[in-house]
Amino acid sequence: MQHLDETTRTELEAAAFRRLLDHLDAHKDVQNIDLMILADFCRNCLSKWLVAAAEERGAELDYESAREYVYGMPYAEWKAKYQQEATPEQQAAFAARQARKQENGNA
């Protein structure tokens, strides 16, 4: 992608991000804890990254607005409709991942 000008690269990155959000929206059955276990990020992380990016650029974006954008609806509504209680197996897998991160100094 080095051959692309910055504007084109930014537009492609933005399009890929929007497609990721569409993909996550189409797969609401994939729980945030599953994403955290497998990829060490979730929908809430994306929201926090948006807020951080806004802050870096001097733009105003609060966390709840970012979450509504990422989730496609208010977080409380998404949580009530789609979020399931984490199973003991998911909790154990998440704890193991966190422990590995601690061991590797990636906390």
TrEMBL record:
Q: Which Pfam families match?
A: DUF1244 (PF06844)
Coiled coil spans: none
Q: Which InterPro entries match?
A: SMc04008-like_domain, SMc04008-like_sf
Extract the Gene3D superfamilies matched here.
SMc04008-like
Residues covered by the SMc04008-like domain: 30-95
* Full protein name: SMc04008-like domain-containing protein
Taxonomically, what lineage is the organism? Bacteria, Pseudomonadati, Pseudomonadota, Gammaproteobacteria, Oceanospirillales
